[in-house]
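Reopening closed ticket. The problem is back. First fold of the pair:
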Amino acid sequence: MMALNSDSSMGISDPQCTSKPVVAHIELNCSEPVTQQLDCQLKTLQITVLLAPSGTGKSSLFNAIAGVAPASGGLKVTGQQQLGMPAHKRRIAYVTQSPLLFDHLSIAALLKLVAKQQAQPFDISWAIDPLGLTDKLVYRAHQLSGGQRQRVALLLAMIKGAPLLLLDEVLTGLDQLNKQACIGVIKDYLCKVQGAALLACHQLDDVLALADSCLLQHTINNSTQWQMFPVDEGVERYQQQLLESQSSENIQGSQFTSMFYGQVHAHFPALGLTEYHVGGQRCFAAYNSEHQIGRLQPLILKANRLGLSKIALPESSFVNQLKVRITAFYPVNMGKEQGMLVKVRLANSEQDGVHKPASLHVWITRLSFNQLQPKLDETWYLIGKADALHG
């Protein structure tokens, strides 16, 4: 289990978002390679992720917004119309999925070159060290790893100082430490420029850690349209879309991540634990001193790090035992191992009257499923260690 920090907007919608200034108003129609429409507003500090399988037009939509692919409609950034403007003049910074960096220059020289091309270059010196690139400035692009090149591309994009940031799989290939550093830099940048970001990302735990809203696809009259949801609802809807799609046999249990909310009850630094209460039930996650007692915090569970038990276990190293009700079963494999994804709802999880009862996923092997024989609407216990997922 992992606790997220709502003070930094990690995975939870800002209740004041509706009162924040609009950074971008997008009303785009694209016809290549798929017909799609996007109509949304992005507000200050808002990070919105596009959730859709590969090959459904996310990169094409980003290209249209950035000005490197045709589109019709409207695209305003801080009130200024961007359609019809060349890409380099748009108030948009774009980090592509496969950035092209000049190999004949060092990274330091490349940063200086891009800065000289800007009328008012944005200072990115503060971001170099958090991204782990201080000792890489003398290198050339071909000497860097894929993740390091991606972080250099983020620096280059930020030099533009644009209030709308497009991030196409910017976290792909990064280990957890570098992901957290990258997430921190992105959020700091948006604070400095009072901007907003659109993100394409396939790892749902990264989505929950970074975004506060999601855009999901639905089809109307052979046209793909994007609809916005709060991040927790969007992730749940997207996972349900995956389960109900015709290609569900290709999904993996490791892809399923769930989020619910717990009230911070107590800290136990000597044990490395923080206690949360969820609808009258106790649960524990890794110690986080930044979580204030009494605050509601989002908590993340990954389906393949959990288990089920028909009865409550005696005291053991499994410190989390949450009472749940089974709502659905889906055949989902883990690599070559056959298994079942069990969908459950936390008992008494209305919590503060704001969030609906949480829906969670648990992946178990087909052998375990046959031995346990769980049935719909039965009450079971969700079992997971406090370190079920690391931040």
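Second fold of the pair, where the issue appears:
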Amino acid sequence: MEKSRRVLCQALPLLFTSMAWADSETLSSFAKPFDELPVHESGANISRAILNGVTHEGGYLEVHETTLAPGSMPHPPHHHEHEELFLLSKGTVAVTINGKTTQLNAGSAAFVHSNEVHGVRNTGNEPAQYFVVAIGKEA
């Protein structure tokens, strides 16, 4: 009997995680050209949703692309529970994480841990393009 209770207690976090994301769409394989991704414009900035859902293991994953106009930010510095990986493909940006700012050029990456205050600003004279991979709780 003791062994059964232990197994049940170990399984509870998985059960609650599955229930929390039960309404989220399970990700399916796809291949879509960049110009067919849905576009969202915010002033001179553009973003494209790439994917948003739950992996086969029940983990949440969201990916989007952003093109920032020179001197602009997508939004003010903020924090959230999920973690983010930024992959810069074009331009120059300043990434600030918990008050520390780092200049990044094309090919660079930044990772933001859960609940750390962060922001991105295009510090170049040309549009900057980056991809964000959000992992963890829904964005």
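Update: turned out to be a display glitch only; the data is intact. The helical segments are 2-20. The domain at 24-135 is CATH 2.60.120.10 (Jelly Rolls). Please close again.
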